[in-house]
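Quick one: co-fold with cytidine-5'-triphosphate.
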Amino acid sequence: MHGKTILLIIGGGIAAFKALELVRELRRSGARVLPVLTENGARFVTPLSLAALAGEPVRASLWDLEDEAAMGHIQLSRAADLVVVCPATADLMARAAGGHANDLAATLLLATDTPVLMVPAMNVRMWLHPGTQRNISVLRSDGITVMLPDDGEMACGEFGPGRLPEISAIMAAIADQFGNKPLAGRHALVTAGPTHEPIDPVRFIGNHSSGKQGFAIAAALAELGAQVTLVAGPVHLPTPAGVRRVDIVTARDMQAACAAALPADIAVMVAAVADWRAEAAGQKLKKDGGAPPALALVENPDILAGIGHHAQRPALVVGFAAETSNLLANAAAKRVRKGADWIVANDVSVGVFGADANHVHLVTAAGNEDWGPATKQAAAQRLAQRIADHIGAAP
Ligand code: CTP
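Sure, here it is.
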């Protein structure tokens, strides 16, 4: 962990005293630890012992003028390679799941763009409560890694899951975050799914995109350690582990969400964006016995081309081409026109929408590679590994 900076948030639970041991282990392994103590955390460990072990000042308040002058809380939230919450109490997890910003710890969790590892410890009933379990699924779908607590006898005398994991297990989970992850520290933007363009309040123009390919790519990139922002159109798919998901509906929403996600090192635009939108009527269109309404269509922005020619263009821009004829020629032309480095060309004449497999070709400046028939997951993993190789080889 040499050279890594860890922002350590200590919540207010009896296990907080064990966080001191974690600070010592982290420093022993070469990491720099920036400690943050919640108000209740300070009831269990003193700022003095924490500062002495960390060799850094302890931050405890949003409203400390000196701390803010030294390093503002937004800056602090991004100063680390990893945020560790230990112990993560039921209350702190609930606030993080709810997007609250009512103290320094919650604000840092809301403002950070670095991976977050939560190490829960609490009473067994609190752990098993549906409210806590619900919050944990929300946190996981937000891309946060939540460890499982140990089983055993608790400080309160009860028995069951809720004990803080052993320090060695926490260290292993932290190392895992920095493990064999060739895309660690890289931000990848992925779009997926269809867009829906409203015609009136109850109707829309859409398409058959299932989102499966884009979600599989987001998952594969996250597995290689990338910090992934997945901008997803309306699909019913679970959020892959470790991925930050932004749900949108229209092409223009998707464009705005992508712009807001920049800067990124990698962009993979998989979404089947509707090429046109209608001027949506404010009221439901009614049959009035006359001619059917004529839809005046307006062209949507091309999100891939916008990213491919952006001032903050990611180092690697990958587009998809869904074609029913002249696959490779159309894909090669699209690559140049849209400012992409690579195009994953997909023959959709054989009905791949919603299917689990397809036949893709990778079109680059150097030519075409036939990747043959593969499941969407296998194609995603191959693409992610190819991206990692390319990024790793870049000067
Ligand atoms: N794309 C985009 N924004 C759009 C249209 C397409 O970002 N408004 C992206 C897709 O995500 C994909 C690539 O452009 O990565 C190609 O999409 P495709 O639908 O094959 O191309 P079109 O631009 O729609 O071209 P055409 O309809 O002429 O084949």
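If it helps, Residues 187-393 form a domain with the Rossmann fold fold (CATH 3.40.50.10300).
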